[in-house]
Amino acid sequence: MTQPFHLDEQIASVKDKGFLSFRTGELPTWCPGCGYFGITDAIYKACLELGLKNEEICAVSGIGCAGRFPVFMNVYGFHTLHGRSVPVASGVKLAREDLTVFAVAGDGDALGIGGGHLPHVARRNIDITLFLFDNSIYGLTKGQSSATTLYGQKTSSHPSGNPDTPVNPVKLALAYGASFVARGFAGDPEGLKHIVKAAIVHKGFSFVHITSPCVTFDKSNFTWNNLKENHSPIDTGLHDPGNMESAMRMAEHERFKIGIIFKDEKRLSYHDNLRQMALKPK
Amino acid sequence: MSRLDLVVEICGSAGEGTISAGEILSRFMSEEGYDIMSFDSYPAEIRGFGKCVAHTRISRGGVLTPGKFADVLIALNDIHSIGQLSVLKEKGVLIYDNKPARYHLEDQSVVGWLEPGMTPYGIPLTELSIKASGNARARNMVALGAFSALFGIDRDAFTESIRRRYGKKQQAVIDSNVNSFLEGYAWTLENVRKMDSFRFDGMSAEVKRDQLIINGNEATAMGALAAGLHLYAGYPITPATKIMEIMSKELPKRGGIFLQTEDEISSIAHVIGAGFAGERAMTGTSGPGFCLMSEFTGLAVMAEVPAVIVDSQRGGPSTGMPTKHEQSDLNIALYGGSGDSPRVVIAPTCVEECYQAAVLALYIAEKYQTLVILLLDFFLSNSIKNMDPPTAPETKYLNAHIVPDAEALSDYKRFRITENGISPRTIPGTEGGMFFATGLEHDERGKPVYDTVSHTRMTEKRFRKHKGIATEIPAPEVSGYEGDADIGVVAWGSSAGAAREAVEYANEKGIKAACFSSLFISPFPESELKLFSKRCRKILVPEMNYSGQFANMIARYLERPMERLNLVTGLPMASEDILKKIEEIEYL
Ligand SMILES: Cc1ncc(C[n+]2csc(CCOP(=O)(O)OP(=O)(O)O)c2C)c(N)n1
Ligand code: SF4
Fold this sequence. Notes:
Chain A has 282 residues and is of the alpha/beta class. Chain A has ten helices and eight strands.
């Protein structure tokens, strides 16, 4: 007979010994094979390598499978409302500049119901990191079309094919003026870890688009096979993340390139801006 | 006249200094120890020559309402003032510009429209203004001079007050205003024979220079700042915008954060984010914005995060009447949102109380980790009152966090079931205090669970907080006849002032009337209301909404028939209306 498995004990035994110190005692409720495991793994490791302390991190999520993320990360976690992780995370950061603040959202969450908040967090350049878990489908509600579902793709809300054209998340983020825009892939946790680290370190709003398969409800578009075949790293010799034109071209034509697409390090974050304005004579 | 109680209206076009003349008058009267309340009206359109009315009530006793009718009308603009004559009392006084006929189109001097019994005083406002200041723009000051001469106001004291008011301006501006005032005063004294009976006596008996003259929005903002507000997030909407404007100036000076958000959903999201992060935060809005916040009100209750929302009610539903008064958001404040969601609702009855209400709102939200709704309304937001500078809140109101001790932290349960419903809460940054909060139903550690027992226990815990809050609410205000009364008026929010005044008038007429109101609507002082009800033969509930939202709420405590007065005039409740209703009711 096998020994009963106690996650709490397992974690206690490895606590302070590595990235597992960022795990809570909860077993993830995601479907076996879901891409979200890989993303979570990358975020744990990035936090560990940056030397962040659990209590200094605040992870704010919306509703959806992606929204469950903070249940599994041992930080100050706040699972809010569908579409609202970004403004709540912004509120946390504005109140407490000392905290490292994440917003976690699915594609439906961040680009559909909560899409109206994105331009504003970007133009304010609030120093938070948005992890957009993009599986191009509504996972939690069982497979309806989302803002990133392909045109013509059959989903549970569009059985004869999605009549709407998907948005391009990276292009949107660039157009909205996000000061850090990157793409990662759930199937490449090691590469994603580096992107996550750069995003967290960036002072200002960081937008991290992470493609991830929903193995249960998307059998045709963002499948493991499709994503693996299509994804390739950005050729850093050919692309300069400081160049907006090049970033825009890449956003338009290279939907599966992974790496840092755009980065404006000179732009002041919201708090820095406030401090600078306070110094100016009235 | 037993006590001086005078309503003065100055009526003119936008840009004629109408509102500023009203301000100067009320400030001076307040300095002289009178109680004042102003409720001005502006044209709905922002530009142009729309009608402005500066309305001020001046009294020796406490002023509870601005008064529905005017004793004195000062007409700076004839055409606008003709319409305004309808609010002048039967024996009212008119001060008007007796400029030569060539200035008027036919029939358009206001004096031509006066009713018999009213007293007109024609003063050459334009001429004297030109004489004193070189242009016609100081007619407002000439009129104040005439007003002072007619009603026995101390000339020198008023001049000093004007100087103080314009103190920071150029000398030429000060001189032009003061000279015009003096010109009006001297001319009137010499040329006008007093024919009415109004008179201010005992001027300068008790000089009060440090009085605040503020509206309900300002008092609310002051209270919130005094209570240590750290973040304010808002989206412009009448009649709450002023709170946002104050915060945008004041918070940065105090190291706080002001944010103009993209919509009201984002405003309340930021407030809840800041509350989660352990800082005091607030937003302000009106009905349409409050509707957008509904989903978040539930989150504040469920995830036990402090949040304060100010809703300054206006005429509704939908976009409704943005610049009109109503008390019709009580239902959404009490019952809006999904699920069983207990919330605290505070409704100040006057400007002074707005300050205290804001302090209590932030304190209770923090201590009980929950949602507090502060219900103002168009009238409270815009009516101006003089008041003594409030004393700073006691320290107990400034830090109300209940944090877990070391023992509790060793096996931390963020949502521990407790007797008083409060679970000690860690603030992000606290080592070993990490937790997960969610709008899903959860167990004591925050883990989402949907079982019957957990949901029942957690629902009970959230409601239990209200027992503790009920012990902290101020006692209800009870006034009027103290024994067994014929009529008990139960009022709420800004209508309570009119109710108290109506009861005073009724008592003077020999009617055994009493009045009851409470700053807190939820939790509500139910047993006190029951006691009050027991000694009243009849109960009357006056409120500015059609469906009787408050009457419906207290009906479940009183279980007796009630008289109702429901008005949707868009105007503040007037004591005259309540008094009329009291007199109409049959008492046998
Ligand atoms: C206001 C509101 N509307 C609808 C829902 C139901 N709902 C929950 S999650 C979700 C979509 C989730 O999709 P996505 O954001 O892409 O996240 P995923 O589950 O794919 O990770 C919906 C529609 C809700 N919770 N709240
Ligand atoms: S439904 Fe899809 S997105 Fe949700 S956990 Fe399962 S595989 Fe992942």
